[in-house]
Amino acid sequence: MREASIILRRASGTMLRACAVALLLSAACALGGCASGSATSGSFAMAGGGDSPTIAFESIDGPPPQVFDRMVSVLDSETKLRSLQVVSRETAAAYRVRSYLAAEVVRGKTAIAWVWDVYDRDHQRALRLSGEEAAGKAGRDAVRDPWAAADDLVLRRIAQAGLSGLSGMINGTPPDAPASGAYRLSALGYTDR
Questions:
Q1: How would you class 55 by CB atoms within 10 Å of its CB: exposed for 0-12, middle for 13-18, buried for 19 or more?
Q2: In whole angstroms, what is the distance from residue 169 CA to residue 166 CA?
Q3: How far is CA 126 from CA 61, 114, 121, 153, in A?
């Protein structure tokens, strides 16, 4: 019975986070005043011009709600800085991103591992980006909750590395080397470390 309630709680938490992403992205679009396309198309962009390919973030799995919300905020600001056109996940998009994050403590240090799977319009995976960001020393509290070390700087480094790889794929250029941490880019046999 306890296991069933844990599974139900996790499933409802995932659903709640997915709804929160849609709500936050919709609110960011409305507040940003960056409507793109006609009112009947339902296509609203957070940033960028009409000529750039559209991107929809399908999911961000793994982090607890407070980290999830901060990650959405960081992604919103980073996509605007890069003039990437992000649309709601209900809207047709050239690329769809599924993101996964995991926190772990190894030898007293916390790290956040991440993966972005990027799919094209035909639902074929076009790119996989992955990496790991050091998040500081663990300590006793972080051993119980390694997500506590996932501050905005760590989340921003993840967003920057992921968006650099995604921009490189869209523009047909290899991504810039990340400022810190290591990441891997896999697309049609190309790997950078």
A1: buried
A2: 5
A3: 19, 17, 10, 28
Tell me what the mean pLDDT of segment 151-155 comes to. 94
**Dihedral sign, CA of 9, 118, 171, 193?**
positive
98-101, long-range: CB < 8 A, 24+ apart? 98/58, 98/59, 98/61, 99/57, 99/59, 99/60, 99/61, 99/71, 99/162, 100/60, 100/61, 100/62, 101/60, 101/61, 101/62, 101/63, 101/67, 101/71, 101/150, 101/158
CA distance readout (Å), 103 to 12, 62, 178: 21, 8, 20
- Percent of the chain exceeding pLDDT 90 equals 47
Tokens of 27: 């609110």
Report pLDDT for 138: 56
The span from the CA of 95 to the CA of 126, in Å, is 9
Q: What is the DSSP letter of 131?
A: E
> d(Cα 184, Cα 165) in Å, to the nearest integer?
9
User: Is the predicted pLDDT of residue 101 greater than 80, yes or no?
Assistant: yes
The token pair that represents 106 in the structure block: 């190894």
Confidence of residue 42 (pLDDT cuts 50, 70, 90): very low
